[in-house]
Amino acid sequence: MTEGSPIAGAPKAATSITLDSTRDEVLAALRAADPAAHEHAERGEWDQLEHHGPAAEQALAWARFHRQLPAQRRQAEHLELEAAIHALGLARELEEAYLGQLAAAAESDGDMRAVLVEATAQQRATATAQHQPPLSPALAPVPAGAGSLHFSVERDELHRALMTVKAVLEPDHPDLGKIEIACHGTVILRVGSPGRGERQSFFEIRLLTTRCIRAGEATVSGRALFDALRRFPAGPIELVKAQGHDVVKLRARAVETNLPTVNYVPIDPTLKGMVPAGVIDLDHLRILLDRVRDVASGGTDASVLHNAVRLSHADGRLQAIAMDEHRLVRAVVDLPGGEPLRGFHLHASDVDRLFRIALAFPSQLHPANAGPPLARLSVSAGKVLTVESDALRGAVSHDPRPAAPYASVIPADLPDAVVVSRDKLTDAARAVVQLFGDEPSPRMLLRACPDRLEVAAHRPETGPRHTSTLPIVAAYGRPFALALDARYLLDALSHGPPTVAVTYDGEHRSGPIALLGWPFRDEKVGRQRAQEFFAHELKSGPLALIMSMLLDEEEDHGCAD
């Protein structure tokens, strides 16, 4: 049967209805041939046409065909995109991850083509990495006695720089426990992991008021440098290293000490092909990373990107997404020009170090009377991300592991919601955590009613209970009951506006709960507008998603009918 032919098996009506007829043409034909059938069709009651005349049978066949057509077209598109992903030649784990995301998007009416776009970008980045030389050559170990340098610095400036570097220093780590002192024009203190180009990461502080007397490099133990500096009073300190000597001499007036140097593999700070990716307030970057770092560090599945943060960018806003086995969090910040960051993956350890140095830098090295500390972001071929200001520079590597299936986890719609004070819900969650003490997975029951939110918890083996009733700002949809881990809820509530919407699908006994910031303070918001807001925030806004625990059969919302 073709779309342009009369429907097979049906007697020819006065005005023939074909599968490619428009709805108006079908209604016009029914109006002329069967007014009673036309009334049903006008109201959308197509199944009522079954016992009418020939024109109605044609119209019914037309309606059934067009009901199935979107699903058929979507299935065909799914198969087409599946074949396109296979044709990219990705690594097996990557291909399976993207096919899983495609299947989830198909099932949830999501954007399937966006999955192919991301998979194609990943394939291009991989191909580029394979055909480009390393960002830096292989670097040989340098003996402790090699090199020389000489500069003078105020003790206070050196101390503040060291306190900033301390944020990323790990004293017992074979690499991150060392500080490389580089003297070329100005003095730089550098901490990081040496390696070949894209696999290295480092952070460096530039001493802006210091000038080199003799250029060179030396590396010392971070702990030893801190200990040595404690012996010096305020004022200028000279640091001198002679070629062939394995000590850096620190001297000031009557105080002098020798600081042993160590063997090291140098960190090459030269990064080529960097593309600008926007300018961000360091405080905003710190807040963004703080919201995702706990979840990023909680993942245990090494085969997918659970213990990492994925960056995305849309509508002028940078999104940071992290996921573990039970939670997902997405933080959002305005960042014009951040498109090159889309698809970049940060390992959890780098997220934590970036957060710590973004926290330390403003308090130690940024002038108190200056404006907010700004940092330039740049990215290189999907390999390295840099964060840079006049006195600070950090470079972290892209984590190449396959992405976790974020798109399949975030629901498109959670129709039921209760809006409540974040502080009051935080107090209730904290009380439940205290009730359970050190026990894992403190179970907390929420019952959402049109006029209140009830919180309950008990320890069956010992008997202590917690119950509280929280006033609500608004409620939408159906009442619901859900159970979840109180510690996860407490962590999710540690950020966000004073009022939050707890959204859920009350038809199911288990499923995800989403916490969304509620921006409408004293404004009365109707159900349709609230649902539009929930759908928008679930798609691209800041959110915290927590998987609920399975409810017992006897537990329900308990609200009056």
UniProtKB/TrEMBL annotation:
SUPFAM superfamilies: DNA clamp (SSF55979)
Record's GO cellular component terms: cytoplasm; DNA polymerase III complex
GO molecular function: DNA binding; DNA-directed DNA polymerase activity
UniProt keywords, alphabetically: Cytoplasm, DNA replication, DNA-binding, DNA-directed DNA polymerase, Nucleotidyltransferase, Transferase
Any GO BP: DNA strand elongation involved in DNA replication
Transferase among keywords: yes
Alphabetized InterPro entries for the sequence: DNA_clamp_sf, DNA_polIII_beta
Keyword Signal belongs to the record: no
Family: Belongs to the beta sliding clamp family.
Protein name: Beta sliding clamp
